[in-house]
Specification:
There is one protein chain. This protein is α/β, with parallel strands linked by helices. It is built from 14 helices and 13 strands. The strands form 2 sheets. Strands 3-2-1-4-5-6-7 form a 7-stranded parallel β-sheet, with helices on both faces. Strands 10-9-8-11-12-13 form a 6-stranded parallel β-sheet, with helices on both faces.
Length: 388
C-alpha cells in the first residue's frame, strides 16, 4: 500500500512554489498516492487546478496584514499601527504553532516541506516513522539563516531536494562537518503543458514578462531596457504581467521615462490568461536579480518564446541554451540585454528558429521524466519498493 503524502504550503494562491506544489500533488494523486496539502493561510480559491482526491487542509483562519500595517504607517495612524501590529504578532504566532501541531499529529507516511522554516519544524517535530523530505524552491544566496539551518537544524531530514545540481553541490559543501545524515539530491520542477504547434503568423509585436511586482524580479531594470529598445522599435510593446507592491513605483517610472503606451502592466491575471498572453507574444524577458529554477521560463518556452535572461548566480543557465533557445546576458548589462531584444525583433528567421528550439527544450521538463525521480526517491529501502 502506498504511503500517504503530506506537502506543506504557505498558501495556495498564485506563485511559483504554489504551482510546483499543485503539479506535484496532482502527479502523485494520479499515481495512487493519498495527498494532503497543509496550507497555513486560506487566501481564497486555489489558483491552480487540483485532482479531486487531493485534500487541502487549511491550518489557520488568519491572513498576513503587511499591506495594512504599511498603510497605517504611511498615514501615521498610531491607533491602526498598534492594531495591525498586534494582529501581525498573532498571525506569526499561529503560523508557527499550527504547522508544528499538524506535523506532530503525523505518525507515518511521507512529509514534503517546501519552505526552510517548515523544514526546520519537520526535522524537530516530525515523527520517527515519518519519511522527511525537505525542498528549497529558491536560491539560498548564502544567507546565514539558511546556512545555519542546513548545518544545524536539518539533522532529522532524510532527503533534501534541490532544483539544480549547482545548488546541490553548494549545500553539500555547507553541510560537511555538520550534517552527515541528510542526503542532498537534485530534482527539477516540471510542467505538463504542451504547445507543439505555434502559429507564428498570429504572434504580436510584443515582448512579455511575468511575475509578482517585487524588487527581486527586476522589473525596474526591464523598464530601462525597454527605453533603449523603443528608440528603434517604437511599434513594439512590452507587457509586464503581475500584481504586487511595486506597481505604483513601476508605473511612475514608466510615466517619467515617457513610455506610456509602450509598456503595459496588466495586473494579476489567471494562469490560463498568462499562457494566452505568452502564446501571442514573440519574446520573453527575465530580469530577476535572483532565481532558482525559473518556472516561468519553461512556460514561456512551451509557448514558443525565445527567452532572454540575466545570467544571475543560479537558475537561468540551467534551462537556457545560449544562442539556441535564448540568450544569457551578463548580469546588470542593460544595454546588451536590449541589444538581444533588438536582434530578435530584427531577425524573424532567427526568432522562429529559437522558438522551435525552445519548445523542444521545454519537453525536457515533463511530468513523466521528473516523476520517475520522485517515485525512485520514495522507494527508499526504509519504505515499500514499487515499480517505476
Amino acid at each position: 500500500m502506498k504511503k500517504r503524502i503530506y506537502i506543506t504550503a504557505l498558501h495556495m494562491r498564485h506563485g511559483g512554489v504554489e504551482m510546483a506544489i499543485s503539479l506535484l500533488s496532482n502527479a502523485l494523486a494520479k499515481r495512487g498516492y493519498q495527498v494532503t496539502i497543509l496550507s497555513i493561510y486560506n487566501l481564497g480559491e486555489v489558483a491552480y487546478p487540483l485532482e479531486p482526491s487531493v485534500e487541502v487542509r487549511y491550518l489557520t483562519s488568519v491572513a498576513p496584514n503587511k499591506e495594512e500595517f504599511l498603510k497605517a504607517k504611511q498615514e501615521q495612524n498610531i491607533i491602526n499601527m498598534i492594531k495591525e501590529g498586534f494582529y501581525s504578532v498573532k498571525v506569526l504566532y499561529l503560523k508557527r504553532k499550527k504547522m508544528i501541531e499538524a506535523l506532530k499529529k503525523i505518525q507515518d507516511g511521507i512529509v514534503i516541506s517546501t519552505r526552510n522554516e517548515h523544514s526546520v519544524m519537520l526535522s524537530k517535530y516530525g515523527g520517527k516513522k515519518v519519511y522527511k523530505i525537505a525542498q528549497l524552491h529558491h536560491d539560498h544566496e548564502f544567507k546565514k539563516e539558511y546556512i545555519k539551518s542546513f548545518q544545524k537544524k536539518y539533522g532529522n531530514i532524510d532527503k533534501f531536494v534541490l532544483l539544480t545540481e549547482e545548488i546541490q553541490q553548494e549545500v553539500e559543501e555547507m553541510m560537511k562537518g555538520y550534517n552527515s545524515y541528510t542526503e542532498c539530491i537534485t530534482i527539477p520542477n516540471f510542467l505538463n503543458l504542451t504547445c507543439d504547434v505555434v502559429q507564428f503568423d498570429e504572434k504580436k509585436k510584443t515582448v512579455v514578462a511575468a511575475g509578482r511586482l517585487h524588487p527581486v524580479k527586476g522589473f525596474d531594470r526591464l523598464i530601462d531596457i525597454w527605453e533603449i529598445v523603443s528608440r528603434t522599435h517604437s511599434d513594439w510593446k512590452l507587457k509586464i504581467i503581475g500584481g504586487g507592491e511595486q506597481r505604483e513605483n513601476l508605473e511612475n517610472k514608466i510615466r517619467e521615462k515617457g513610455l506610456l503606451g509602450k509598456i503595459e502592466i496588466t495586473g494579476m491575471l489567471s494562469h490560463s490568461d498568462v499562457l494566452r498572453e505568452m502564446r501571442s507574444a514573440s519574446v520573453y524577458a527575465l530580469t530577476s536579480y535572483s532565481e532558482a529554477f525559473g518556472f516561468v521560463l519553461i512556460e514561456a518556452m512551451s509557448s514558443g518564446l525565445p527567452v532572454i535572461a540575466f545570467d544571475v548566480r543560479v537558475g537561468p543557465r540551467t534551462i537556457i541554451r545560449h544562442d539556441v533557445d535564448g540568450f544569457l546576458v551578463e548580469d546588470q548589462n542593460i544595454e546588451k540585454f536590449a541589444n538581444y531584444i533588438n536582434y530578435l525583433i530584427d531577425d524573424s528567421s532567427k526568432r522562429i528558429a529559437m522558438s522551435q528550439n525552445a519548445i523542444n527544450r521545454a519537453k525536457t521538463y515533463t511530468e513523466t521524466q521528473v516523476m520517475r525521480q520522485w517515485i525512485a526517491l520514495f522507494c527508499d529501502d526504509k519504505y515499500e519498493k514499487e515499480s517505476l
